Amino acid sequence: MGQSVFVGVDIGGTKTSVSVAHNPPLILWRAEFPTLPEKGPDHAIEGILQRIREGLDANGQTLHDIASIGVSCGSPLDSKSGVILAPPNLSTWKAVPIKQLLEDQFGVPCYVENDANAAALAEFHFGAGQGMRNVVFLTMGTGLGAGIILNGQLYRGSGDAAGEIGHVRLSASGPVGHGKAGSVEGWASGGGMAQVAAKAAEQALADGKSSALGNTVADFAQMTAKHVWEAAQAGDKVACDVIQTSGERLGEAIAILVDILNPDRVIVGGLALRMGDAILEPARTVVRTEALQANAERCAIVSAALGEQLGDIAALCVALQDGLHGSLSQYALMK
Amino acid sequence: MGQSVFVGVDIGGTKTSVSVAHNPPLILWRAEFPTLPEKGPDHAIEGILQRIREGLDANGQTLHDIASIGVSCGSPLDSKSGVILAPPNLSTWKAVPIKQLLEDQFGVPCYVENDANAAALAEFHFGAGQGMRNVVFLTMGTGLGAGIILNGQLYRGSGDAAGEIGHVRLSASGPVGHGKAGSVEGWASGGGMAQVAAKAAEQALADGKSSALGNTVADFAQMTAKHVWEAAQAGDKVACDVIQTSGERLGEAIAILVDILNPDRVIVGGLALRMGDAILEPARTVVRTEALQANAERCAIVSAALGEQLGDIAALCVALQDGLHGSLSQYALMK
């Protein structure tokens, strides 16, 4: 029998990864495969089971060596029962009892968290939130959500739905996110930034100006935050203004969090990893004027520190949680 | 030696009350006196010391019978060191070490919390938040602030300044609260409602309409939320519209809290005690459309249950906190 290991499973709309670790955040082995949600949950679950077995084999271990399994996945889900309810990025997944499936298969405890909460745990324990007490992690991908650590503990809310800052309104109208025009997700997520950019490029075209963001309506429909960033790096003025706008709106959202939660740190993942200060500096400037001075001064706004490893370490952090449903296991606390 | 007692001290801008209890929330004895902040903190502190001694005498007790003292007071303060920093409603109080003063005088532990946090504890343990896990209490007096209980624990924030929902912006311009035009406090506190009413009455006058809110500029300058409520009860249309507006803006603020914190309950004190559904029903309607459906359905929006006793019980709840700075003592947990 080998040394006991933790298994992390990070289920995304595009790819699913499985990682194995004795001693997180150090990862011994990992593998990923396309999730292909259009093929239904069984396809991905089969892939997960197979990769877990491969990961054990690769390290000379058996099923008996698993200490626990952590699953990180999109909302909504029920973290207590471990059921994935109906994440928008996994359109065919409806009420998938992932916890029970994995526990039945491997006979070890399995914990399930939404990806924002899992990433918040990872940055809190091993990344930019180390040594802090109150930390907000913002996902900034296609959508925008928050994982919240308060008094050193993950805060899930009464219905597993805390952290929905993406749904908060910033303006009466505007780009749509989380089903709401003018929301934080509409203005400041990757999907929102693409909408802001499409509109800005369309305006540039109407004004007879050229922009690297594209010059046809077909281009605008294909817009992504990646296009915006590439155009901005090439010096395109319209693209730079779009990033400035989304950064300022991100700052309005962070100011709300800073006034309500008075955190030590707000950590931004996703786009902020690539764009860095181009998006965070406009946000910081807005927070300094919009939030209470003492709260703003208290709170640093930084990019996630775990970079490309964040998703894997996030899923492993979920595995580290003990049966008390909230506090980390003794193992993690000793680190 | 008598049975041990808890002492609560509620320091407000107008009056200070001292209450004594064996078995909170049952109050054995209470007294109040005018705080008179213009006379400086020493005046009120002398009054507090005297009333505590009177309260003990009245119950046949001595200083040795005090278990602990709780102080509830306006922000900003430092709850760890127990120093009252510079509350706007106590203009002459600057860095008053109330905890040390009372501990030196009576030789028992003294705890200090801001009034919103203290009221949140009181409603959580003995009022409308009983049996819940996540509760937000909103003060709705001259200002507007929040006391937040998460995972059954008071959440103070990193610099004792969580809960500043009153400072959050709802509109680019508008009535001023917390030093910010268009803020939640500007729109929905008592002071904010008075501004909304003054503007509405001025408009009514300009339009040649009569309103019970007053018909001269001098009236508008004297406007209070109490005037608005009295006029509304007499059926004044302008006053009713003002309450509707403040209630809707309160709903926008609650929707933000509901999306970010996913609480079981939002409990509103102050004006809501008097105005009830006249202010809460417009708020509930807005929350149903502005917040995420699941989060809105989860969260009841109610008036504080402890009514006129809230301030006294709030201060006593501060006394019930043990030295761990956050959890309630065994005494309270057994209840």
Q: How would you describe this protein?
A:
The structure is a homodimer of 335-residue chains. Helices cover 42% and strands 19% of the residues of chain A. Chain A has helices spanning 41-58, 98-106, 115-126, 184-188, 190-206, 217-221, 225-233, 237-261, 271-275, 277-290, 293-298, 310-320, 330-334; strands spanning 5-11, 15-21, 29-34, 66-73, 77-78, 83-84, 110-114, 135-140, 144-150, 153-155, 176-177, 180-181, 265-268, 300-303. In chain A, strands 3-2-1-4-7 form a five-stranded mixed beta sheet, with helices on both faces. In chain A, strand 5 and strand 6 form a beta hairpin. The two termini of chain A are 24 Å apart.
Q: What's the short version?
A:
2 copies of one chain form a homodimer. The first copy, chain A, is globular and about 65 Å long.
Short key terms for the protein model shown above:
homodimer, 335 residues, alpha/beta, five-stranded mixed β-sheet, 14 strands, 19% strand, globular, disordered C terminus
Structural class per helix/strand content of chain A? alpha/beta
The outline of chain A comes out as globular
Q: Return residue spans of chain A where pLDDT drops below 50 for at least 5 consecutive residues.
A: 323-335
Average pLDDT figure of chain A: 93
Number of strands of chain A: 14
- Separation, N- and C-terminal Cα atoms of chain A: 24 Å
Oligomer: homodimer
Order of helices and strands of chain A: EEEHEEEHEHEEEEEHHHHHEHHHEHH
> Counting H and I runs of at least 4 residues, what is the number of helices of chain A?
13
What value does the Rg of chain A take, in angstroms? Answer: 20 Å
Fraction in helix of chain A: 40-55%
Largest sheet of chain A: 5 strands, mixed
Taking strands numbered 1, 2, ... along the chain, how are they ordered across the largest sheet of chain A? 3-2-1-4-7
Biggest interface goes to: A-B, 42 and 42 residues
Strand portion of chain A = 15-25%
